[in-house]
Amino acid sequence: MGFPLRFLSSLSLCLLALLLHRATVTSGCFSMEREALLDFKAGIHDTYNRLSSWVGQDCCAWEGVICGATTGHVVMLDLRNTNIYDWKLRGERMNSSLLALSHLERLDLSFNDFSGIRIPEFIGSFKKLRYLNLSSTNFMGGIPARLGNLSSLHVLDLSDALHFTSHVDNLHWLSHLTSLKHLDLSGLNLTDVPDWFSSVNMLPSLQVLSMSSVGLDTIPASVVHINFTSSLTVLDLSYNHFDSTLPKWLGNITSLTHLDLFYSGFYGVIPDAIGDLGSLTFLDLGDNQLEGTVPRSMVDLRRLKELHMQGNRLTGNLSDLLEQMTNLIILDLQSNLFNGSMPSSVGKFSNLTELNLAGNSVGGVLSEVHFENLTRLRLLDLSGNPITISIGQSWVPPFQLRYVDLTKCQLGPQFPEWLQFQTQIEKLYLADCKIAGTMPAWLWNISSSTITALDLSNNQIGGKLPSSLKFTKLVILYLDSNRFEGPLPTMLPSTLDTLFLSNNSFTGQLPIWPDVQSVALSDNMLDGGLSSSICQWTGGLEYLDLSNNKLLGEIPYCLGKSLQNLYILNLGKNHFSGEIPHTIGFLSGLWHLQLKNNSFSGELPLSLKNCIGLRFLDLAQNNFVGSITPWIGDNLQQLVVLRLRSNMFSGVIPWQLARFEKLQILDLANNNFSGSIPHNIGNLSTMRSTSQYNDFCYDELDVFTKGQDLYYLKCSIKLMKSMDLSNNSLTGEIPKGIGDLAGLKNLNLSRNYLQGKIPWEIGGMKSLESLDLSINDLSGSIPESLSVLYSLSYLNLSYNNLSGRIPTGRQLQTLNDPSIYMGNADLCGPPTSKSCFDNKTTQIDIQEHEKEISDWLWFYISLVLGFVMGFWIFFGILFLKDAWRHAYFHFIDDVYDWVWVQ
């Protein structure tokens, strides 16, 4: 009996000790761990008091602190910032006393800001750590190699853990993390780590590898052995710069379920090995440079739920690719070269929620069969394909779409009635679909409930708009290029941001729309003035195009004060008059000012110099007077287009215009400018360059070139560089520096009083397509250098005083119109009928030849006389001056001795 009693007594003591220990844990936490947490708190800025609960003795009750149920030790420190606001903890220091948390298994400091310090070395001493998350913490410096000591680590997330200026030197320490299953290094700078793959390949248990946006530019083409072929399920190498073909060894990682190679610089064909990844549920090869047909092996990827291959140059028929992928939820193949007809098998994809084939060449006819089982479809984008959608007017779709884009598909002529059953549509794009008739009333009913973006532009839809659209939830409304008529709606919803109604037949005056930000009403029949409405548009209007209407009166004084966010203003082709108010200078952010084809008068307001961001200034065909003051060249340095054509400007062309670094259209034609062409005109940087890169776009610009007005639409302005100074009173010679404008395509100096010869340097204008020097007082011969302008397709040298033989170079022989040279009595040779062997022409040629000989003769005479005079002056002095002669020969002896020694 003694032994059992002693055993029970010992057991009772043990139970008592455990109970006492448990009581200690529940009443607080270990003091050493509590002090360590308080030291940590002292080293950070807690602006939003997220750690306000860190008071009292029981640290296990503090926010983010989790203790073990049995031991009472801190096992988890979770301070992840999950608040939608910027409630970050900001690091100043991190005390190593945190090592007192020796039982720590999980540490999460993600989405805070420790930009002032490095990742602490001591983190590598938490032997029991299984989870470490430092993502988006903005630490400075690199990654400490001591993290390789965390042999128990299962999850390591360092995505965006470092400040963008920090580089990672190596990843060798990764090889020690043999238990690692999840590794995320996304957003780090690994450009200095060429052997990244060998380091990662040492992790046999790895299941998730994310290295998105890390600057990788190398990937092995072949690998002898991959450690994680049977474990890796997620591989994300998106947003890198590999500039490589897709490696075939990817097909060996048969455990992959998620493969993301989006925008990583891969090119060439997709290897057949991709079909070996039969477990894939997610595949993204989008926005690379892949080409060719999709391999047949991809039909074996039957578990795919998401397939993204947009933005490549892939070809082939969709039927072969999609036949077996019946589990697809998202299919995105936009912006490729797929062709053929839409396979009817798409109708079997009962799980499909997004179908995006935009920007391909898929054709054929789509009927109800293609949609019969797509009950979950939410996004349908077939835009840019020559598809005919033939669906009965009484058909009721089995789905409820939220996004529809059928731009450039054949839908018309009737408005598709099946859309009235789509009560959840948010964005509806039916531009250029050959729809005619009037807009159905039910469409406005949908708009009142769900539609935020509606585009029906480039159709033949007519009728009138409701007087009020305030009942809708529209943010964007495009109805341009249709047949709408009648007055504009007087009331718009406060949500409406963009309203494009150009190229219709709207009439009446401009309503008061206080909230809209972008308005295009060009090419309508609007009349009246602006003062009664425009000054009440106080909601931040940025874009206003009222061109080609019947608007009249003056620009209201208040426009510059009320619309200070305006960056595009187009009032061209109206009946406006009066002066530009000086308040235009309040539009300091103005990029584009178009006032052409009106009756504006007066001088340019000095306040315009405040619009230093101005890139497009078109005041052509008005009644402006005065001179171009130098401030234009000094202040408006961003100008790309300057058109002052057909006004009454006078004075000289200031040399400051040559300071424009971005100018590519200079049109000062049909004014009263006098004086000479600025001598530094060849300094215009963009016109000197043959590059066509320019980020400037605009809808329409007319340029007089090749004897006619040519209109450049949308972004085609990038292709034109032009200088037109014609029909002024310019005198003097054509500057030789004009030949430096190698990128110029159109040069028109006609109808002036220019004198002298055509400069030989004009042959340097390699891009020139049109050259007009007609109706001037130019003389001398036509330079042979014109014949090397291989792009020249229009030439006019008529009505000058040119003489001699017309050059017969290869390019000039293609311009065989005699009218090019008419009005120059002393020119001869083809294509004119005048022979170069008559007495007068021969005499002119002889005189030209004699003049050239005379010039060369005087050059050589001057050269000989200069040599003789210099020779006798030098040796005459040596002959007469004994001291100079001795010094000279002494110098010669010294030089000879030095050379001999060397």
Automatic annotation (TrEMBL):
Q: What residues does the Leucine-rich repeat-containing N-terminal plant-type domain cover?
A: 32-67
In which compartments does the protein localize? Cell membrane
- Membrane-traversing stretches: 856-880
GO-annotated cellular components: plasma membrane
Give one Pfam family.
LRRNT_2
Q: What does the UniProt keyword field contain?
A: Cell membrane, Glycoprotein, Leucine-rich repeat, Membrane, Receptor, Repeat, Signal, Transmembrane, Transmembrane helix
Report the residue ranges that make up the Disease resistance R13L4/SHOC-2-like LRR domain in this protein.
Answer: 232-420
**Where does the signal sequence lie?**
1-28
Q: Which family does it belong to?
A: Belongs to the RLP family.
Q: What is this protein called?
A: (wild Malaysian banana) hypothetical protein
Species for this entry: Musa acuminata subsp. malaccensis
